[in-house]
Amino acid sequence: MDQNSPYAGSSIILTTKHSKSIAIAPAFLNVLSAKIIECVIDTDQLGTFSGEIERAGNAVDCAKMKCELGLRLQDSHYGLSSEGSFGPHPYIPFLPCDNEILYFIDRKRGFTLYLSHLSENTNYNMQFVSSMEELQQFSEKALFPSHALIVRPTSKEKNQLFKGVNTADRLEAAFRESMKLSENGKVWVETDMRADMNPSRMMVIQELAEMLAKRLSVLCPLCQSPGWGKVDIEKGLECSGCGIATELIKSEIYGCTKCDYKEESPPANRPLKADPANCSYCNP
Ligand SMILES: [Zn+2]
Ligand SMILES: [Zn+2]
Predict the structure, then answer these.
(1) pLDDT higher at 1 or 197
(2) How much of the chain exceeds pLDDT 90, in percent?
(3) Which CATH superfamily is domain 11-122+197-217 in?
(4) What topology is assigned to 126-191 in CATH?
């Protein structure tokens, strides 16, 4: 533990409904000597994964709203919230991904900082099934029963659904009930992505919590605000053959959460010039 941490001994309010402190608290204690206190509110009113309530705004807006809500309810300088979204990888089609955001507010120093983490470590999946055998095949792929499922009569049915299904008996009952209500002889099944129902997601949140805690332990060289770190990259590393700027990263930009001070440095282990193989002129 680091007693010189800018947050040593302080309490950070985590607004959550799904017991995410299990994934977040260890990193904040070990790296920052700070305690996480859960503020349990019905964050489902801000949007649920299973679609009963549509999420308003993008994931960052949603995380910010949650974080501010927790700080309004609890009197503290520091707030934290998490938000996940799931879908195909931005560059690799059909590869499911979990994109997690952790949003931090420091009201004492007057800054906010959020980090995101895109991980392929997810069971995110959904489909129609027409038999128990088909459902069992899906459930194996979906890491059931350690990971829960959601079952319902159709993909859009918002009222009749079975959430948090995590035993074989409940899965069969949910299938039978949904089949009765189904109009096309098929039942919709999807992975339950709530953090407390999904250990893979909990793991990704834990990785992100470590990244954020480490980031908050680094101070700005100019104003000493916590959260100094990489804020941007600059492409355009010159080709060693012809000198033209390539698409490769030339430098990383480090910045402060509070003041405008920035530093530029070449990325670690990066050659000084680009290989002509990456050059659009030398290797068209
Ligand atoms: Zn600064
Ligand atoms: Zn070149």
Answers:
(1) 197
(2) 75
(3) B12-dependent dehydatase associated subunit (3.40.50.10150)
(4) Dna Ligase; domain 1 (3.30.1490)
Q: How confident is the model at residue 157 (pLDDT cuts 50, 70, 90)?
A: low
Of 170, 93, 179, the residue nearest 130 (C-alpha): 179
Contact between 181 and 118 (Cβ < 8 Å):
no
Q: What spacing in Å lies between the alpha carbon of 143 and ligand 2's midpoint?
A: 48
Spatial strand order of the sheet with 162-165 comes to 126-129, 187-191, 149-152, 162-165
Ligand nearest to the CA of 238: 2
User: What is the 269 CA–ligand 1 centroid distance (Å)?
Assistant: 27
pTM of the full structure? 0.88
* Predicted pLDDT at 55: 60
Identify the pLDDT of residue 270. 78
In the chain, what are the domain boundaries?
11-122+197-217, 126-191, 230-278
